[in-house]
Amino acid sequence: MALWKRLLTDSDIIVTSNYVLLETSALVQQHLGIPALRALHEDFSPLLAIEWVSEHAHKAAVEATLTASRKKLSVVDCVSFQLMRAAGIRAAFCFDHHFREQGFELLP
């Protein structure tokens, strides 16, 4: 929580993709319900810069996922790697070891 609060007060922009937001929405709705989903979209999402995944990026991520042939490496992960590299983003606020494997710094 302390790291999240610091990220919100830093001058850095917090970037995510519409794929991550969609995946998060599904999990929040399933596990926490509609009030939590509403809070996610009304209170949390406006704090983020959302990168919308293009058809080209989607196809490249699917191909990367299939090429890697790893059960727990998702299309959402591969899209995130592509978007981060394209934007020069080197750190990810996540708990997914795949980002470290791809050369990104994990926060926390």
- Low-pLDDT parts are none
Number of domains: 1
How many beta-strand elements? 4
Q: Compute the average pLDDT.
A: 94
How many H/I helical runs? Answer: 6
> Please, what is the oligomeric state?
single chain
The CATH superfamily is known as 5'-nuclease
CATH class descriptor name: Alpha Beta
What is the CATH topology?
A: Rossmann fold
Distance between the termini: 10 Å
For the largest beta sheet, what order do the strands appear in spatially?
A: 1-2
- Specify the helix fraction band: 55-70%
The CATH architecture assignment turns out to be: 3-Layer(aba) Sandwich
Order of helices and strands: HEHHEHHEHE
Backbone CA Rg = 14 Å
Which secondary-structure class do the elements indicate?
mainly alpha
Strand coverage percent:
5-15%
Which outline best applies? globular
| Main beta-sheet strand count, sense and barrel state | 2 strands, parallel
Characterize this entry briefly.
By secondary structure, the protein is mostly helical.
Task: Give the helix/strand layout.
Elements: H1 2-9, E1 15-17, H2 18-32, H3 34-44, E2 49-51, H4 55-68, H5 75-87, E3 91-93, H6 97-101, E4 105-107
Parallel strand pairs: 1-2, 3-4
Helix pairs in contact: 2-3, 4-5
